[in-house]
Amino acid sequence: IIRRIAREDNLFMVGDIKQSIYKFNLADPEIFIKKAAEFKNAEFAGTLLCMNENFRSAGKVVDAVNGVMEKVMSPALGEIEYAPEERLICKNGGQGAVEALLCEANGAEEKVFREAVMIADKIGEIVSRTEDAVRYGDITLLVRSRSDFSDAVKKIFQNRGIPLAFDLEEKQDIPELDLFVNILRVVENPM
Description:
Helix content is 41%, strand content 2%. By secondary structure, the chain is mainly alpha-helical. It has a two-stranded parallel ribbon. It starts with a helix and ends with a helix.
């Protein structure tokens, strides 16, 4: 229908190849890839505009997202290439930091406990660094849902005197947060 009513001057399309991580929700990256190729084609009267400037996130966060996306979005793993024009460009200039903590454990119960301890240790380390002047209130821990993990975190944080506020009742509708959570799901289980 859209092709039938579209003219060269009345069609506007928006897409983001990075959203192809939603493939498990039946997203079809080929649609975006084909449309982007059409707009790049000189015979087509349209213009492809890559809106990859990020004004919210600090440079280290943008670098980390680009690094993860380059690994996850490859023809071998995700069937899509994270092309140079897709890379985010930091326009914020803020400091920020990104760190991945990896935990090995035997069994789900041990994993829950060890991850909670590891996070509490890391928060204690960050807050104790006088050169950074980071307070507990500067740190946010995102969890998918109320679970044994969030209960373990609450218990361990209380035992260590780390202030904690839980806001699990209302899901915040933040697209960037949803994107990041889904990236982590793909990294955790790529197939």
